[in-house]
């Protein structure tokens, strides 16, 4: 993603925060949820979703959650090649060890936090878990 795209995304999120605050103000002042979308330039279902959020958590918590959701992921979604190699090396060194033990070793020795589900599903093919000749 280029710098300009990052700036545009950031600006659009800030614009949405402004629209959320305006939506809250209009709604609190008795403006119909049907009339708000035309004033803010957003879809009607978006306004209803925001109003539901205001009712459930209040404006401050809703805004905080919205900002947090727009930050993006904290960790990369894909398992790195290095992690896969380490998992396979641990599996080879400690024969018949389970995913929990592999996770523990990864945390202890490498400071890597990978879920057991990722170890089973994404990294190791199922035949490795059942093959005793490894």
How far apart the termini lie comes to 42 Å
Low-confidence stretches: 1-11
The total of helices stands at: 8
SSE-based structural type: mainly alpha
Report the C-alpha radius of gyration, rounded: 24 Å
Q: What number of structural domains do the residues give?
A: 2
Total count of strands: 0
Query: How large a portion of the residues is in β-strands, by DSSP E?
Result: under 5%
Q: Average pLDDT across residues?
A: 81
> Roughly what percent helix?
over 70%
N-to-C order of helices and strands = HHHHHHHH
- Coarse morphology: rod-shaped
**Main sheet attributes: strand count, strand direction, barrel closure:** none
Please supply descriptive tags for the structure shown above:
single chain, 134 residues, mainly alpha, 2 domains, disordered N terminus
Protein described:
This protein is mostly helical. The protein folds into two domains: 3-70; 81-130. The protein has helices at 3-28, 36-40, 44-57, 59-70, 81-93, 99-110, 116-123, 126-130. Helix 1 (3-28) packs across helix 3, helix 1 packs antiparallel against helix 4 and helix 6 (99-110) crosses helix 7 (116-123). Mean pLDDT is 81; it is low at 1-11.
């Amino acid at each position: 993603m280029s710098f300009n795209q990052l700036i545009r995304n950031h600006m659009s999120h800030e614009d949405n925060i402004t629209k959320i605050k305006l939506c809250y103000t209009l709604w609190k002042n008795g403006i119909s949820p049907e009339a708000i979308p035309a004033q803010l330039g957003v879809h009607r279902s978006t306004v209803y979703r925001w109003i539901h959020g205001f009712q459930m958590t209040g404006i401050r918590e809703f805004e905080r959650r919205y900002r947090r959701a727009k930050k993006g992921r904290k960790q990369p979604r894909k398992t790195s090649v290095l992690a896969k190699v380490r998992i396979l090396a641990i599996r080879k060194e400690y024969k018949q060890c389970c995913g929990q033990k592999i996770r523990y070793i990864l945390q202890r020795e490498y400071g890597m936090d990978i879920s057991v589900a990722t170890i089973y599903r994404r990294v190791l093919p199922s035949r490795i878990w059942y093959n005793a000749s490894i």
